[in-house]
Protein: ABC-2 type transport system ATP-binding protein
Amino acid sequence: MESPFLNEIRQLPSPNSSFASSYAFMIQINKLAKKYKYAEGYSVNPLDLTIEEGAVFGLLGPNGAGKTTLISMLSSLLKPTSGSFTIDGLNYREHKNELKQLIGIVPQEYALYPSLTAYENLSYFGSMYGLQGNSLKNKILDHIEILGLSKFAHTKIVNFSGGMKRRINLIASILHRPKVLFLDEPTVGVDVQSKNVIMEYLRQLNAEGTTILYTSHHLNEAEQFCTRVAIIDQGSIVCKGTPKTLIAQQEGTKNLEDVFLAHTGKALRDHA
Ligand SMILES: Nc1ncnc2c1ncn2[C@@H]1O[C@H](COP(=O)(O)OP(=O)(O)OP(=O)(O)O)[C@@H](O)[C@H]1O
Structure:
């Protein structure tokens, strides 16, 4: 079955497109909101948020809080109901195609062709971003090696474990060296070893200048990994700051999980 993300990246401009110069805030969100068709209320209430260039920003919240909805709007996979945002100074309405080249998206669901090999999948995704020839080949082989998958480059994705698919999903999103990387639960369902490799690689990308916005339910991971976090609940941001500041501000909290529970409560968030 064709991935829903393929249509989006098919219309990408060439990697040589010129972008706006750097801004102190890589992402500026202004009253951005989403109400799904036929839904009773808003999944994301009008919210403002700024994310600095070079940040590792964690968007944390219980099930159904609005994390995927917000990240999908920012990565142009979902049309906002109202409000606006800029990435690297580019407004999403006027610069849709440039923005697609500027960002990488690691969706929660695997956006891979199961009947193709890892190498074939990555060739396809790389070519969608305008990469080709030896340059594309070398990038693919380098990344496959860094993420520990050289032995499986020519194995079909259908035979991959969850952790291996997550690593290929990540490579597919960064071959074109995006300035901003959106990751929706990049370590969900993977073993500790794969998680370790993924997080190490994300740290390296960030050290080389990629701004990262990621969602996760792993609060320990977020506490270690993020320079800033925002906790979102029922479509609204309930607190934001560095993990250290949030822990210090909230009385009786020792870690980010305590802060999370203090702000979102202990009630279950089951929904269907
Ligand atoms: N296509 C849709 N149509 C209607 N409502 C939707 C749709 N997608 C999500 N929602 C609703 O929007 C709200 C926010 O969902 P979203 O998936 O953004 O939450 P989330 O924080 O990512 O949750 P999770 O941690 O479970 O992935 C939920 O109430 C969800 O049921």
